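Chain A, query sequence.
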Amino acid sequence: MNTCQTCLNSEVIRKREKNAMASEPAKTLLKRLKISKAIIQAPMLGVNDSALAIGVSRAGGLGSLPCASLTADELRREVAIMRDAKVQSVHLNFFSHKPSRPNIRPQEIWKDVLQQFYDKEGLKAPEPKLENGRKPFDSNMCDVVEELRPEVVSFHFGLPEESLLTRVKRSGAYVLSSATTVAEARYLRDHGADGIIAQGFEAGGHRGMFLTSDTSTQVGTMALVPMVVREVSPIPVIAAGGISDGRGILAALSLGAAAAQIGSSYLLCPEAKITQVHRNHVKKAIDHDTCLTNIFSGRPARGIACDLIRKIGPISNSAPPFPTAGFALKPLQKHTEAVNRGDYSQMWCGQAVGLRSEDEGVSAEEMTLKLHAEMLEALQMLLLAH
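Chain A, predicted structure.
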């Protein structure tokens, strides 16, 4: 190819990239989020804090801070760090689940199920207790949001009650929430979401489902995104699930998404807070190594299958309701992870995690730039092929 042809193709690619972002929903989203790249880092509770979010933001994407386990003071400190780093947009993510009634009996049943594993490891099982380290968004945390005034607030498991959502929006925040079906997307549109994250079946971590608990209703990303786009347009739609490289981002934009939300690609970044056991499993994971399981929290979530999952099954009717199932597993996890075993470990990731197995040590900023460059390369290859 001569120099003129190369320049021509480069110009065509730039125009095609601009056109991909030229839809009104895409322009609205990128302008409102103050980002230059259509990449949103998935908020990953237990995996990332402000450091990873800052790296993504520096590269022009939207970093995200998971807040469901933070106290008000911890949240203030994290946001202060992000403001000091001069990120364009602070994005805070909260859970909006409906807590179950306090009931110790499910914990007692769960202890009986797990007793064989405590016997095997020579450990004493903890006495059942009602521990809840994952609080839904409430008035107290809403006070903090009004104080800190983040540019973006997102919710998982639906939306908070109307009075709280009204306060969040009056603070100036752009509100996102996850939908796993068209019906959920319609609900979010009708109840005040500014943008909708279409979370496909392939996504790692907890399913955002809130209108049903039936996992058979869950839809893959390629099918879900265009249906949600058609249903809620002109509200911007963000594609999530199974997107781990630039080709996936380009596919999402081609389906009408305004941006792509990506989590698993950042798991091997030095800023990620995962355990060494989790990191080791991510590096060797392939497509069929993940599954949906409820045994770590009480709600369906995708992660790498460990020995416990293989022995009692990924979905257990004995698992206590969200988010209380994990307490009984903590001593087993601590004991085995200390000797580099992941027999009882929750290792959240999506189905496409294997695409990034060779990227250990790549910073969050570098990964975001790499993802964007891969998208441009994929676009170039598509143009050359057609």
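The chain has 14 helices and eleven strands. The longest strand covers residues 174-179.
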